[in-house]
Amino acid sequence: MSELIFEKSVPGRRGYRLPAHDGPQRPLRDLLPAEHLRRQPPRLPEASELDVVRHYTRLSQRNFSVDTHFYPLGSCTMKYNPKLNDRIASWSRFADMHPLHPASCAQGLLRLLYELEQLLCEITGMHAFTLQPAAGAQGELTGLKMVRAYHRAKRQDRSTILIPDSAHGTNPASASLSGFQVMELKSNAHGLIDLAELRGRLSNDVAALMLTNPNTLGLFERDILAITALCHEHGALVYMDGANMNALLGLAKPGDMGVDLLQLNLHKTFSTPHGGGGPGAGPVGVSRSLEPFLPVPRVRKTGKRFVWDERGRRSIGRVHAFYGNVGVLVRAYIYIRTLGREGLERTGRAAILNANYLKARLADVFPVPFAGRCLHEFVVSLTPLKACGVTAWDVAKRLLDYGFYAPTVYFPLVVDEAFMIEPTETESRETLEAFANALRGIAQEARTNPELLRRAPHQLPVNRVDDVKAAREPNVRWTPSQVPVSNTSG
Ligand SMILES: *Cc1c(COP(=O)(O)O)cnc(C)c1O
């Protein structure tokens, strides 16, 4: 079976041909310097339009995506995003805007950015926002640079960031990239921050506590008010990783909890399809005392006009040259405006309801190490299947045969054989039932036919790929010597 478009190539085959032009005939070498002209035509595949359409349509169907499958990938909020928002973001008035457009010719877009900042302030209870960071992790980095600037301005030298052991890997990475020491906080038996442990770790060297709320186990930090008060008593700031904001929409505001800074992941909570490494947005919201440190330029309103304001003596500077990801910001704006206050609250409630429903449907088969009601996601342990010689990895692969994308596995690290499930609010009860039934069926298979699971998936174009090799030695370029010989497989 020919797999690559290059292998489908037939010399001379064409998609379409233009009629010969009737303008003046000037050879190419009159127009371009000789050294820039090819001596040989490029080795591009030669294929008919129909070959190309079928090839790429087929390839697109070999993928899992939110548009085709239930995608309960914990921590990622892989929800369905209304196509309307994509449609509007691709309007030429947004999509064709040049980054160097003078502000006077970009008033509509500047107004949108200005209003989006205000909407995010209202949703989170923060005082001001920067829309510059282009990812959650870049938002963390931006926030931590502001933490540093804040303490410097107070002539304090604080070098430690406290991070709970359940944190997303980007948290310690961002902290050490910003030059801080990371100190780990052990979670308590409920999977939450341990107040006594926190008290023991706080000192005048701690710059900030970096926490996720709800945390990566899907649990709300019930002691959040005591936690932020304790940090503030010691002169430390509280940075909240807001990637899980989906659970709080319309229900609770981090600003009210005493949080000093947070990032939002617009590509998770606010309507940008993600997963393929495309652009995201990680706006950072701050309390009043951190506003002077926000990146510049900021959008300001003077009278009826919107302008870029480059001033900011204490600003950490720019963290992004241009708003190349502005489409993500447009989508978030449309999403928030179309849902409104009530719609956002329904979103948060439905995300929580769906997670708890699914948890209840699985609880008798898979233990939930940290019991109690979850918010938008939950973590089960597949440890019981170890007795059958089956791992969480095997179950994840088998789920693909059933037509479900696999949940996040082996994260957070505090749970053995972790399966982290986030159904999101956009799934129907029927889908949740079908998924629960598939997982229950697979647990049965583990007992009766564990080999079936160990060799899964059986229905997909590829079996188990070597993902370490794929990450370490990516090779996405075709060269002629790679033409597979028909009697080898791989
Ligand atoms: C996704 C996620 C991040 C990182 O966000 P990116 O946009 O992928 O950089 C950080 N923290 C948590 C809890 C997340 O879920």
List the SSEs and their pairings.
Elements: H1 28-31, H2 49-61, H3 83-89, H4 92-95, H5 107-124, E1 128-130, H6 136-153, E2 160-164, H7 170-177, E3 181-185, H8 195-201, E4 206-212, H9 224-233, E5 237-242, E6 261-264, H10 266-269, E7 284-286, E8 298-302, E9 305-309, H11 326-362, E10 378-381, H12 392-401, E11 408-409, E12 418-421, H13 429-448, H14 450-454, H15 467-472
Parallel strand pairs: 2-3, 2-4, 4-5, 5-6
Antiparallel strand pairs: 1-7, 6-7, 8-9, 10-12, 11-12
Helix pairs in contact: 3-11, 5-11, 6-7, 11-13
Residues 75, 135-137, 168, 170, 212, 216, 241, 243-244, 265, 280, 282 line the site of pyridoxal-5'-phosphate.
Q: Helix coverage percent of residues? A: 25-40%
Mean pLDDT: 93
CATH topology of the largest domain: Aspartate Aminotransferase, domain 2
How many domains, as an integer? 3
Class by SSE composition: alpha/beta
Rg: 26 Å
Number of helices: 15
Chain oligomer state: single chain
So, CATH architecture of the largest domain?
3-Layer(aba) Sandwich
Explain what this protein looks like in three dimensions:
The chain has 490 residues and is of the alpha/beta class. The chain folds into 3 domains: 1-62 and 463-490, no CATH class; 83-339, Type I PLP-dependent aspartate aminotransferase-like (Major domain) (Aspartate Aminotransferase, domain 2, 3-Layer(aba) Sandwich), CATH 3.40.640.10; 344-462, Aspartate Aminotransferase, domain 1, CATH 3.90.1150. Helix content is 35%, strand content 11%. The chain contains 15 helices and 12 strands. The strands form 3 sheets. It has a 7-stranded mixed beta sheet with strand order 1-7-6-5-4-2-3, sandwiched between helices. The protein has a 3-stranded antiparallel beta sheet with strand order 10-12-11, covered by helices on one side. The radius of gyration is 26 Å and the shape is globular. Mean pLDDT is 93; it is low at 483-490. The protein binds pyridoxal-5'-phosphate (PLP). Pyridoxal-5'-phosphate (PLP) binds next to helix 6.
